[in-house]
Amino acid sequence: MLMTKMIVSPIGESDYNELLRQAVAVIDQARASIALHANSTISAAHWNLGQLLHERKLESKHGSGVVNRLSSDLKQRFPDMGVSPRNLWDMKRFYLRYVNADENLRQAVAVLPWGHNLLILNKNLSDDQALFYAIEVLSKGWSRDMLLHAVKGDYYGNLMATPQSNNFNKTLPAPVADYANEVFRSRYNLGFLGAREPMKELKLERRLVKKITRFIMELGKGFTFIGNQHILPFNGKDYKVDMLFFHRGLHRMIAIDLKVGEFKPEYVGKMNFYLTLLDRMEKAPDEEASIGLILCAEKDHLDVQVALQDVNKPIGVAEYQYLLPKEQILQIVSSELKKSDK
User: Fold this and answer.
1) Cα-flanking dihedrals φ and ψ of residue 315, to 5°?
2) Which site among 12, 294, 298, 321 is 20 to 30 Å from 209 CA-CA?
3) Could you tell me the residue range of the domain that residue 123 belongs to?
């Protein structure tokens, strides 16, 4: 109470009481449906509280006393809700950041956990960047730490700067090629593996299988896991596909070949052979021709283009990363290659 008496308020007592009443109403309304729509409901409360502070023209320089008092009173009624003065000012920043943003961006951030939203807010990202990371969090279940690593490693910038490396436009009908280019990316984030040391291909594959649900989330919607080290017996020999999937939308099998090092042209010939065997031996009559994806630690787009130039099977080449700086990834790859040469 002593703190309250010392506050020099820029608004009258009745106006403050009305502000407090509206803030309480916002939180009460949010709590009524919080069990069904936790994140979106909390974000709505944060949005509306931020809007209240903005409409009351409360600024940190002149309105800190009011916000401190509001925080104290709200804490008494909602002790388990984060309504510290700092959080209230963050709510105002949240409102101002997105009030004039594109509807798609507003809808995306509205269902993010508050900690994720604060991270995006504090990084001063563009609308395109914020939307990209929000969608990644929602579609792949990124934790706040994973989001932080992605932003610090400029996952968005690296992905946008890396061209698609495939021959889909030449080997698939135009509408299917466009869809395939949407399904497959030029780079994949395997940070969910939690790897802090180099892994050989088989170990990498086993880690992916162990966390296959997260890997499928990273690949995107529509993928169903068939198996790893999938055997294709032919001419008295057993050939093994590292990982085999089926994509419901494309209605095709997807063969993935994992490589710990940089892309080499000979990988295309191997994948082309696997796809021929898959289509000859396992493709159902109502299924379309299989697609291959070669996952490497690094690729040169020109090398991939030349390697795929005369290949008639649909094959894509993509990079993966552990959310480490590129220089550190190169050190890991170099170390792994030296070990495999011994």
Assistant:
1) -135, 135
2) 298
3) 108-153
